Amino acid sequence: xxxxxxxxxxxxxxxxxxxxxxxxxxxxxxxxxxxxxxxxxxxxxxxxxxxxxxxxxxxxxxxxxxxxxxxxxxxxxxxxxxxxxxxxxxxxxxxxxxxxxxxxxxxxxxxxxxxxxxxxxxxxxxxxxxxxxxxxxxxxxxxxxxxxxxxxxxxxxxxxxxxxxxxxxxxxxxxxxxxxxxxxxx
Length: 186
Description:
By secondary structure, this protein is mainly β. The chain has one helix at about 1-15, and strands at about 40-45, 50, 60-70, 70-80, 90-95, 110, 120-125, 135, 145-150, 155-165, 170-185.
């Protein structure tokens, strides 16, 4: 009888242990790294998957531009994820100021914003009725942008990025495993 009870408890324990829901790997929730102009973007924000998501009022905001202005090349890549009530959203962006993009001069450091010849990363958390909570890379808290494909004929740019950023309260955030494959505008 004891053996039968032991077997029953053992089978029940094994069955229950297999019932646990496994948490998917956050990286597997991101779009694959491609170089075809698939218009994809994704990254991890403090280990949580972030991809563009729209609201009830429209599609997700996903932008990419590479422009020559005032004697310099400017790269702009940003994506937004809107909350369920459309009153809050978050945004991740990577930018350069007067840096010519190519695949030879990789990687591009992400550090000081609005500084000629530099790139920077930005994360923002916006709640419509409050001031935004903005995080930026700095000369000390940095990141990196790697361009894997830059096709000026078909206007496709693909690559990866990561950065750490800080806000005005000295809180930091980690953006990792960033990837994008975009058609850019001029």
